[in-house]
Design a protein that fits this description.
- The chain is mainly alpha-helical and 282 residues long.
- The protein contains 14 helices and no strands.
- It folds into two domains: 31 residues, no CATH class; 246 residues, Glycerol uptake facilitator protein (Up-down Bundle), CATH 1.20.1080.
- The longest helix is centred in the last third of the chain and has 32 residues.
């Protein structure tokens, strides 16, 4: 019995017959991390983000807003080279993934990622201090993201950086927002917020498949017609600058419902469920 115990792993597990200690180590390395481990990775990331200086959060958020504007541009490029058929959106929606890949793989601050990352530390230790830290990060990153997309929209609209047909393509895609009502914006925002939170939750265990995870989840947002507060703000800003929307109407009919929807989907649904899975194990 002593010999059998000596062959076990450091966790008190016995080595299965016919498997060497090295192979046991390989099994543990290849196994997916347990849910509490994923929770702890995401929670620590949130803690680190809330400790960052305001100036760092600001410029990282602006960079994210600028980067995510390439989602709309890539969609317009693909759409301009595809025939007007029923399957065209299935292909052109692949362009939507581009901006998110730039943001996530570039470790830039995106508001909808923080609806889970900085919320988990708050769930673990609900204090006024943690709530204040969360509110500080949310406010800085949201304004910075919106500033980035606004700068990108101004640059695309008022400079000759894009061919006329490509600019028209971006504006045509953006007009899809005009047909959505307040509640439609909200509930589609809930779906989008949930998918982004799921993406953040999956990344720690994705390893070399991060690219595929980001592309898949954001592609679902595009083909599902769901609304995202940052990527969608590029479209909304284009509409305002082109004269299709007034600023106050954009803020009331797009910004408010989509923001609330993303927060509900990412925080009230996914983050709360994720915490509930592990609250007796941490």
């Amino acid at each position: 019995m002593t010999a059998a115990r000596s062959k076990g792993s450091g966790h008190g597990k016995q080595t299965p017959k016919g498997i060497s200690e090295q192979e046991v180590a390989d099994v543990e390395e290849m196994s997916s991390p347990r849910t509490p481990v994923i929770y702890e990775v995401v929670r620590r990331l949130g803690d680190e983000e809330m400790e960052r200086p305001a100036i760092s959060l600001w410029w990282s958020g602006v960079a994210a807003g600028l980067s995510i504007s390439f989602s709309l541009l890539a969609q317009a490029i693909l759409q301009s080279h595809l025939p007007d058929t029923a399957w065209r959106p299935l292909v052109s929606s692949l362009g939507y993934c581009v901006g998110f890949l730039m943001v996530v793989l570039g470790n830039q601050q995106l508001f909808t990622e923080s609806t889970i990352t900085v919320v988990l530390p708050v769930f673990k230790k609900l204090t006024w201090k943690n709530l204040g830290r969360m509110g500080r990060l949310w406010a800085i990153v949201l304004v910075a993201n919106f500033t980035g997309t606004l700068v990108a929209a101004i640059f695309c609209t008022f400079t000759p950086v894009l061919p006329a047909d490509l600019l028209q393509g971006m504006q045509a895609i953006s007009t899809d927002l005009l047909g959505l009502g307040w509640w439609t914006m909200f509930f589609r925002g809930v779906s989008s917020g949930f998918l982004i939170a799921a993406m953040v939750w999956m990344i720690p265990s994705a390893e070399s498949a991060k690219f595929a995870v980001i592309a898949l989840m954001t592609y679902l947002i595009a083909i599902g017609g769901f609304t995202h507060i940052v990527a969608g703000s590029m479209e909304a800003n284009m509409l305002v600058l082109h004269g299709d929307w007034e600023w106050w109407r954009m803020l009331g009919q797009f910004f408010v419902p989509v923001l609330l929807g993303n927060i509900v989907g990412g925080t009230a649904l996914f983050a709360l469920i994720s915490y509930a899975q592990v609250m007796k194990e941490i």
